[in-house]
Write a structure and sequence with these properties.
It is a single chain. With 555 residues, the protein is mainly alpha-helical. The chain has helices at 2-8, 15-39, 45-61, 73-87, 91-114, 126-149, 158-167, 174-193, 199-214, 241-272, 279-295, 305-313, 320-335, 345-359, 362-371, 373-389, 391-411, 456-469, 489-504, 516-524, 527-531, 540-554; strands spanning 69-70, 302-303, 415-419, 428-429, 442-447, 476-480, 508-512, 536-537. The chain has 2 domains: 2-377, no CATH class; 415-554, Transcription Regulator spoIIAA (2-Layer Sandwich). Helices cover 64% and strands 5% of the residues. Helix 10 (241-272) crosses helix 11 (279-295).
Length: 555
């Protein structure tokens, strides 16, 4: 429990800045947690339960000193998407299923952490995350449009919900729409011109005052209503084994998403503040937080990038920030929940919409398009996959496509003929149109990928093309093996075939920059004896010099 160790050695001179950071986090947390609680299909106050329990547990188990855990828009909408069809409108069953889902996610994360599966986060590519976040943001926004327009929308899918809204525009409650639009505009303006002000808290306070003074509920504006005070109680969700079996696939998918998002966020702030993040410990911490929220009347929690940024910008230096913020939540739950009963639900919808707009990073899509078109299209595929076939199936489709792209790159890796570029030290890929031979009769060929059964035939085809088009005829082909960590038996046989083809044409095969492991494999497969120890070189330069000297001796 890293948090315990840090608290034991806590420096009192950090307390002032940590208290300020905790108060700022609390100010941002209350309105967003209320909004996400409702988004997840619960009474808004349940969002505060999730934040309270999540922050306390993560502060004890987490390795990040800045990360703030709690309800998030993407997690909340995923919970609603998974649980609502299974609950069948039963509120009690809904709560039990959501709690069970959180516990399952927690158990999966804890087990993954204990088995040191933290490396899984490295396989969740940036294009998939970009498309997933954007798609989920649009789904969340569509889920709040009914609140903004004062219309009850029954459709589930993104496009179906938008179409239903268009057909139902004549039912719009104008005062509700006005409250929602004014809140959205106010939040955007405050964040644009007064970024240090807690815009969501200001919107919350102003909305409560205006709603209470003008009694907006009497004019048909939906409000939160009575909110129960008090703290969440320990409860064991009652579900069947069949329910658990149906929830496991979603729990697996959510575990990966929650962990990937959490570890990426924590690593960013770990690097910024010069300390290391233990990915496996993060799995355990996120797991413990989710198990705890499941047993305390709540739903799944995840890393909050917005609240983490606020924490860091406010000077938060330790996990104590989460504990102090949790203490403030306790005070609010015990004494101040009655303030929320006049809050218009359209204001909560507006808070969620503005938060989701900030998640849709168009610049990130542009960057992907500039750097690599395939990754841009993968992000777009993930985006539309999430919108069309659902969040989890859409992500699964994107991951499958990502693996296909990866396999294609390894199957047809980058290769090049190496030579000397004027003014550049070393040997580099030769630009098209230049003489391919580094010395008359010699070509240096680079294979920039691991060599194994899938791409070994490609190497054979490339070598065959090189020797058939060489002018003057080749005497020596040097394979730069710097990017080849090892070979399998299929690749070894292919190299033997290449050696035979070259020998029949009077061409010598040489190997440059082979690492120790590759040399050992070549010894075991007989390649080293076949090629000849004298044809292995520590660098391209030494191989070229040896060929030049041999050519001079022959001349």
């Amino acid at each position: 429990m890293p948090g315990i160790g840090l608290i034991r050695t806590y420096k009192r001179d950090l307390l002032k800045t940590d208290v300020v950071a905790a108060a700022t986090v609390f100010a941002i947390l209350v309105p967003s947690a209320l909004a996400y609680g409702e988004l997840a299909g619960f009474d808004p106050v349940v969002g505060l339960y999730a934040a309270l329990v999540g922050m306390i547990v993560y502060a004890l188990f987490g390795s990040s000193r800045q990360l703030i855990i709690g309800p998030e828009a993407t997690t909340a909408i995923l919970v609603a998407t998974v649980v609502a069809p299974l609950a069948g409108g039963d509120v009690v069953r809904y709560a039990s299923l959501a709690a069970t889902l959180a516990i399952l996610i927690g158990v999966i994360c804890i087990l993954a952490g204990k088995f040191r599966m933290g490396f899984v986060a490295n396989f969740f590519s940036k294009p998939i995350l970009t498309g997933y976040i954007a798609g989920t943001a649009l789904i969340v926004i569509s889920s709040q449009l009914g609140k903004i327009f004062g219309i009850s929308l029954e459709s589930d899918g993104f496009f179906a919900k938008i179409w239903e809204l268009i057909l139902s525009l004549d039912e719009t409650h104008l005062l509700t729409l006005a409250v929602g639009l004014v809140t959205i505009l106010g939040l955007i303006l405050l964040k644009r011109f007064v970024p240090k002000l807690p815009a969501t808290l200001v919107a919350l306070v102003v909305a409560i005052i205006v709603s209470s003074y003008f009694n907006l509920a009497e004019y048909g504006v939906a409000v939160v209503g009575q909110v129960a005070s008090g703290l969440p109680e320990l409860q064991i969700p009652i579900v069947s084994l069949t329910d658990i079996a149906m929830l496991v696939p979603a729990a697996l998918a959510l575990s990966v998403l929650i962990f990937a998002d959490g570890v990426l966020t924590s690593r960013v702030f770990g690097r910024k503040n010069h300390y290391d993040i233990d990915a496996n410990q993060e799995l355990v911490a996120l797991g413990a937080a989710n198990v705890s929220t499941g047993f305390f009347q709540s739903f799944s929690v995840a890393a909050s990038s917005s609240r983490t940024v606020v924490n860091d910008n406010s000077g938060g230096k330790s996990q104590m920030v989460g504990l102090i913020a949790a203490g403030l939540v306790i005070v609010f739950l015990l004494f101040f929940t009655s303030l929320l009963q006049s809050l218009p639900t359209s204001v909560l919808g507006a808070i969620i919409i503005v938060a989701c707009i900030s998640l849709f990073d168009i610049q990130e899509f542009r960057s992907l398009h500039i750097v690599r078109h395939s990754e841009y299209y993968l992000a777009i595929l993930t985006l539309f996959g999430v919108l069309v076939i659902g969040i989890i199936p859409g992500i699964a489709l994107a991951i499958a496509c990502s693996l296909i792209v990866f396999i294609q790159r390894v199957y047809r890796p980058h290769t090049s003929v190496l030579g000397i570029e004027p003014g550049v030290d070393g040997y580099h890929g030769i630009a098209p149109g230049r003489d391919l031979q580094v010395k008359p009769g010699m070509i240096v060929y680079g294979f920039d990928a691991p060599l194994f059964f899938a791409n070994a035939p490609y190497l054979m085809d490339q070598v065959t093309d090189l020797i058939s088009t060489a002018d003057p005829p080749l005497k020596y082909l040097l394979l730069d093996a710097a990017a080849i960590p090892d070979i399998d038996t299929t690749a070894a046989d292919t190299l033997k075939d290449i050696h035979q083809v070259l020998s029949e044409k009077g061409i010598t095969l040489g190997i440059a920059r082979a690492n120790k492991r590759l040399r050992e494999t070549m010894q075991l497969t007989g390649l080293e004896d076949l090629i000849g120890v004298s044809n292995f070189y520590p660098s391209i330069r030494t191989a070229v010099e040896a060929f030049r000297e041999d050519s001079l001796e022959e001349a």
